[in-house]
């Protein structure tokens, strides 16, 4: 923990905004200083750190194996995802170039820039557990203004 | 020269409602990492969070399990304890929170965390009711009702309908006639969906650009447009059969040729 003397040195320039009279206590610190000491003690490592982790050779090999397996797993997952994205891009490209040959009008519309397009607010972000009402069924389309 | 036949299909998906299930390997790895992290954690600074002499401090201290301190002339088979601030520095620190009156035992199995909805409805007005998570498995999962939107919550579902002509399951597909061409593929697909399934459905078209093209042997060019269902229900007017399916279920139900064309569009 922080020694009280160090704390006094650190916070000697800190002045309380309000003058408060406390009970005279020759042994302890000023309560304001005491609070700062306990706050600093939370951030300091003294007497709070655990012992160093010492693994025997066998445990170390186990740990290495686990980490290696994880990195292989992650790598495979990322590569698979990249491959999928590539495939999706290719199929989109093929579809659009074919559409240009088949129907130039549809191609023009399909490539129009959609300005101001946003995700709808009603789309939900997945949560760990479902809401009480899972799906909203009673939707009806907005009436056109007359 | 005859004009080529163009069809516009809608890949309508229901996005996941809950987070994906964690595979067994990932679960084991996360648990290992958590244990490592707990072992290397600094001691919990109790004096900071609980003021001395308060009721909260007393209750917290009472709930803790303190390790046995070192003592002369005592032999410790698992090594000499090394206590600092009431924690054995050789091991992780277990912090036990004091129990409140309305606390419930949280089941350790994460897959089903709740009771039936009926009994929960009874005490909804009670503000002090215990917090309980809803189940990730719904009644539609148990019934295996494939027409429901409330099944397979951690997965993306896709709408498939049965063609009356050849009894094959496909995405809803609509012919593009010449007088419709000025609408664009995405609007034709969305309008077609409302024609067969009623207009009480809210969807969001991802893009006006087709995501894929399927070239059929009989000269039909089928363009796929992606879309999400947000609210409402697909309610077929002519009693068409329809299903909301995950990727694996789609593979079982559609022809292999069709699946190989749409495989990469479907989310795992």
UniProtKB/TrEMBL annotation, chain A:
Cellular compartments per GO CC: mitochondrion; ribonucleoprotein complex; ribosome
SUPFAM superfamilies: Sec2 N-terminal region
Coiled-coil spans in chain: 75-102
Gene Ontology biological process terms in this record: mitochondrial translation
Keywords: Coiled coil, Mitochondrion, Ribonucleoprotein, Ribosomal protein, Transit peptide
A GO term, aspect molecular function: structural constituent of ribosome
Subcellular location: Mitochondrion
PANTHER family reported in the protein's UniProt record: 54S RIBOSOMAL PROTEIN L28, MITOCHONDRIAL (PTHR39150), LARGE RIBOSOMAL SUBUNIT PROTEIN ML40 (PTHR39150:SF1)
Name of the protein described by the UniProt record: Large ribosomal subunit protein mL40
Automatic annotation (TrEMBL), chain B:
Keyword match Lipoprotein: no
Keyword Ribonucleoprotein among record annotations: yes
A GO term from the CC aspect: mitochondrial large ribosomal subunit
Keywords: Mitochondrion, Ribonucleoprotein, Ribosomal protein, Transit peptide
Cellular localisation: Mitochondrion
GO terms assigned for molecular function: structural constituent of ribosome
Pfam families named in the record: MRP-L46 (PF11788)
Family matches, as InterPro entries: Ribosomal_mL46, Ribosomal_mL46_N, Ribosomal_mL46_NUDIX
Ranges for domain Large ribosomal subunit protein mL46 N-terminal: 6-140
Family: Belongs to the mitochondrion-specific ribosomal protein mL46 family.
Protein name: Large ribosomal subunit protein mL46
Species of provenance: Pichia kluyveri (Yeast)
């Amino acid at each position: 923990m922080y020694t009280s003397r160090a704390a006094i040195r650190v916070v000697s320039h800190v002045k309380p905004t309000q003058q408060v009279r406390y009970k005279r206590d020759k042994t302890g610190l000023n309560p304001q200083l005491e609070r700062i000491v306990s706050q600093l003690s939370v951030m300091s490592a003294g007497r709070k750190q655990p012992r160093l982790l010492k693994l025997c050779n066998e445990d170390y090999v186990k740990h290495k194996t686990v980490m290696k397996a994880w990195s292989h797993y992650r790598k495979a997952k990322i590569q698979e995802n990249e491959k999928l994205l590539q495939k999706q891009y290719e199929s989109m490209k093929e579809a659009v170039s074919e559409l240009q040959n088949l129907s130039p009008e549809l191609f023009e519309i399909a490539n129009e820039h959609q300005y101001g397009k946003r995700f709808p607010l009603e789309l939900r972000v997945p949560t760990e557990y479902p809401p009480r009402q899972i799906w909203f069924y009673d939707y009806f389309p907005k009436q056109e203004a007359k | 020269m005859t004009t080529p036949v163009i069809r516009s299909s809608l890949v309508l998906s229901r996005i996941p409602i809950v987070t994906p299930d964690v595979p067994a390997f990932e679960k084991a790895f996360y648990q290992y990492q958590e244990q490592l992290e707990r072992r290397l954690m600094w001691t919990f600074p109790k004096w900071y969070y609980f003021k001395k002499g308060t009721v909260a401090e007393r209750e917290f201290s009472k709930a803790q399990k303190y390790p046995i301190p070192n003592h002369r002339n005592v032999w410790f088979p698992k090594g000499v304890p090394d206590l600092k601030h009431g924690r054995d520095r050789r091991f992780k620190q277990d912090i036990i929170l004091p129990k409140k009156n309305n606390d419930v035992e949280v089941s350790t199995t994460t897959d089903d965390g709740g009771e039936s909805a009926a009994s929960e409805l009874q005490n909804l007005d009670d503000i002090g009711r215990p917090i309980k998570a809803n189940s990730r498995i719904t009644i539609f999962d148990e019934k295996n009702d494939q027409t429901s939107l409330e099944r397979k919550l951690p997965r993306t579902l896709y709408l498939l309908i049965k063609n009356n002509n050849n009894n094959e399951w496909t995405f809803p597909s609509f012919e593009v006639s010449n007088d419709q061409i000025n609408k664009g593929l995405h609007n034709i697909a969305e309008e077609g969906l409302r024609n067969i399934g009623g207009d009480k459905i809210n969807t969001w078209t991802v893009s006006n650009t087709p995501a894929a093209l399927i070239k059929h042997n009989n000269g039909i060019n089928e363009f796929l447009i992606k879309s999400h269902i947000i609210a409402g229900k697909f309610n077929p007017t002519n009693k068409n059969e329809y299903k909301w399916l995950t990727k694996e279920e789609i593979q079982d139900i559609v022809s292999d040729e069709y699946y190989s064309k749409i495989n990469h569009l479907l989310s795992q």
